[in-house]
Amino acid sequence: MTPFRSHSASYAASVAEQTRDDTVGRRERGRVEASEVSWAVRDLQRAQGELDRHLAHRLGLRALDYAAMTYLMQTPGQAGPVELSVRLGISTGSGTELADRLERAGHLHRRRDAADRRRVVLEPDENSVTRMIDELTPLFGALEQVADTFTDDERATIVRYLTAVAERTHARATPTETSAPGG
Predict the structure, then answer these.
(1) pTM exceeds 0.85
(2) Cα separation of 128 and 1, whole Å?
């Protein structure tokens, strides 16, 4: 298995610079009228993107490889190279090449689908999943500390709100028959 790379000083400096210079956030606020709650969600989305880039780097994965592993962890035993390609918006040939690269690095395994022996299913390697979870564990601890500062009723409201936000975000991210690139 390919070892995970360590965090480099140049990467840390680039992330620190992005954090200090939030011109994108200021520009967005000048173009879209929204409540502070909506802007807080947008900040959370931006932070999630930064976290994903950081974790990919910490795990020694390219951004696309990290996105592939995240998708495969969310759909265990369901996705093959074609589904992975569609999800990532790449050609099936590129999806197969991506799966080959992740398999050679020890991050995933291929197996035949039990229901359709012609179909190949991609499954993340348990050691890679464990490493990704281990990287996220401190964040979950910190999030629990934040959650503990709210009452049960407040947490229920937050959960209800964030669940609705996630549903609407998923709906917006799901391609439709009429959606086209750039549209």
Answers:
(1) no
(2) 9
